[in-house]
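Weekly sync, protein design subgroup
Attendees: M.S., D.O., the rotation student, P.L. (late)

Item 1: inverse folding check
M.S. brought a backbone from last month's batch and wanted to see whether the design step gives back something sensible before we order anything. D.O. pointed out we never logged the input encoding, so this time it goes straight into the notes. Structure tokens as presented (205 positions):
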């Protein structure tokens, strides 16, 4: 695990080669020999690091998750208030997923593998993403000694809405909504999503 959290040069080369091969032919058609050849790493050395193809696939996924969070942190660095934080986050999430080469490849060539993980079996992903989003949003809200149950529900609802919308835009890029540039995504988020995110729970809820 430590090798994946802080990969050395060889492991990084393997992960990059595997990702490139997955993007080229898909996960199912990629073999360990393909990765060994593309990374210029001996098969024995490759298998010492990743005993099975499934181990390698999981490592690539972990690497991409890490890349996502690193990019997310950079996207929020210049945020000065809740509005900027939300708009930057929504814009980054939508563009990261819509421009992710491997995700687009799998949606086209291996939809039976990836679609269940992002739809009927997406409960765990949505729950984790919602928790993370709620924590990030909460840091920009006025700090009170305690939140009411209505405030807590509202925060989680907003975080889950953000998560589900992002996944929807990634899975179905064809849309009458202009999301083809960073500016367009930010304008959409500001005009349509921000009011819902900052409206607060209904009075008396």
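Designed sequence read out in the meeting:
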């Amino acid at each position: 695990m430590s090798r994946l959290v802080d990969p050395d040069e060889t492991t990084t080369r393997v992960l990059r080669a595997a990702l490139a091969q997955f993007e080229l032919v898909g996960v199912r058609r990629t073999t360990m020999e393909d990765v060994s050849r593309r990374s210029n790493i001996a098969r024995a050395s490759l298998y010492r690091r990743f005993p099975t193809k499934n181990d390698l696939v999981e490592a690539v996924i972990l690497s991409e998750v890490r890349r996502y969070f690193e990019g997310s942190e950079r996207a929020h660095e210049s945020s000065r208030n809740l509005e900027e934080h939300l708009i930057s986050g929504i814009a980054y999430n939508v563009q990261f997923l819509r421009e992710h080469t491997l995700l687009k490849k799998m949606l086209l060539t291996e939809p039976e593998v990836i679609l269940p993980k992002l739809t009927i079996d997406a409960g765990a992903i949505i729950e984790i993403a919602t928790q993370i989003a709620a924590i990030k949003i909460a840091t920009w809200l006025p700090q009170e000694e305690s939140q009411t149950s209505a405030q807590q529900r509202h925060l989680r609802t907003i975080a889950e809405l953000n998560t589900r919308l992002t996944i929807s835009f990634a899975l179905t890029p064809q849309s009458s909504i202009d999301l083809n540039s960073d500016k367009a995504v930010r304008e959409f988020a500001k005009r349509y999503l921000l009011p819902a995110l900052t409206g607060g729970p209904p009075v008396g809820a």
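Discussion: Residues 140 and 186 are 19 Å apart (CA to CA). The chain has a mean pLDDT of 85.
Action: P.L. to compare against the previous round before Friday.
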